Amino acid sequence: MTNQDSFSSLWGIPSVQFSATAATLALLVLVMITQLALRIYRLYMHPLKSFKGLTEACISEDWLYKVTKDGTAEEQFEALHQKFNTKALRIGPNELHITDIELYKVIYNQSKPFLKHAPFYDGFNTPHTVFAELDPHLHKERRRMLNPLFSKVGVYKLEPLIHEKIYTLSSKINRLCGSKNIDIYNAVRLLTTDIITEFAFAKSANLIEEKTDEMDSWFLDAFDVGSQSVVDLQYNTILQKLVAVLPVWISELFNPRLASILNLQKYAGECMRHWQMSSGSSSHPVIFDSLKSISDEAKVSEAMDILIAGADTTASTLATGFYHILSDQRLKERLVRALDVAMPEPGKLVSLQSLEKVEYLTACVKESIRVGMAVPGRLPRVVPNGDPFIVEGQVVPPGTIVGMSAYTMHNSVEAWGSDARKFNPDRWIGPESKDQEKWMCTFSKGARMCLGQNVAPAEITLVFAYLFRNFELSLPEGHMTPKGLDRFTLQYEMPGLPVVFKARQ
């Protein structure tokens, strides 16, 4: 009889059961030892050990996942930068958040950019798009196809479409304004989504009129729910792989919110197929006319990216601008006076080129873009080999993930002065305003700068001009400051931004 048999016989435990129990315990002990060793390594031996940060942030990504999921990451990073008195905060085992504003142009460089951090961008489940492509050469080729459409000249060609959709929105506002407050946040989200779907696919989504008596749509509901699951994918590479291959109903079992993202992807595919059937029949430029050479799979991914970027980013900036202008009667009256002069005929929208010459309108647009950062959070990059990357006298090792944010740049007293957090259009009036452009990072910088850098200001200019010229707008009594959350794009919680509209006589 073996020792194990004797032991089993003595205690009345079958030998197979004992072996399984012992193996399980051994495995648990091994996992615990491994986790402990990893934590000790990350705290005391990791190349970033000398950079300050919370202990829980240094030992695992769980803390970073939680604050990102909460939608308040940048505010928490800011508080910790102050607590530790550092411009290079360790927010993950291998990640630093940087607040030295002079380093933005180093990280997001035109000629030698730091490469994108794969897990972060893979979380959007849109591989190899202009937005998510990691390879600079492949990105450059795809972007070359689209640059003419998003140039200044391309935007002027798109202007009639923007006018048309603004007229549709204003007609609905006219219909509703006597009976209820109007959520301007949802209203402009419907507007920008209708614009981008027609611009991209020559397909009128007609979300503005989807619901007769309110500013809402299935698309906004799906977007709001789906955007909350992006962070789950960014911090769970196994989930990323499963979502890419499993049917919607199975993916939903892992995370119910994933179904919303996948339904949006399905809708993007339907839009793309509509374009294929109606190609060449549009009176305005169409994005996918420039993407005929790429695969159908790549078209669907690109369609999803275009919908996300075009639908929500400009809308949140518009809502921010409306809130700040309506919160200050002096600013509103000054803008309305300028528009009354530039647009003497009510109901008639003048050209974008003419409106861009209205100094105070342009100042309000720029300040809305600065304060209403469409993408407020960090954009992670990987430190390359070569020239050392130095922050506060410390060399950041190659392979480290680093990131800066529009939130940091646009709230910097060093860049904007003591009123950096104040909505002040006057900062854009005068010769010195040109010098401030270098600190604007809403669309990022360098070779990966957002394609929409000309489209967004055009939409904001035309919307502000038409609505402030033709309606008397005010915030309702007892209004509360809308709460914005960082879901990669800035999103406002319900009830959005209710506004009182009255037709101007």
Automatic annotation (TrEMBL):
Binding positions for heme per the UniProt entry: C450
Q: What is this protein called?
A: Cytochrome P450
Molecular-function annotations in GO: heme binding; iron ion binding; monooxygenase activity; oxidoreductase activity, acting on paired donors, with incorporation or reduction of molecular oxygen
Cofactor(s) of this protein: heme
Q: Name one GO biological process term.
A: mycotoxin biosynthetic process
Q: Which organism is it from?
A: Penicillium cataractarum
Keyword flag rRNA processing: no
* Signal peptide coordinates: none
Concerning Gene3D superfamilies, the annotation shows:
Cytochrome P450 (1.10.630.10)
| Stored CDD domains | CYP58-like (cd11062)
Question: What does the similarity note say?
Answer: Belongs to the cytochrome P450 family.
Q: Keywords assigned by UniProt?
A: Heme, Iron, Membrane, Metal-binding, Monooxygenase, Oxidoreductase, Transmembrane, Transmembrane helix
Provide the transmembrane region boundaries. 20-41
Query: What superkingdom heads the lineage?
Result: Eukaryota
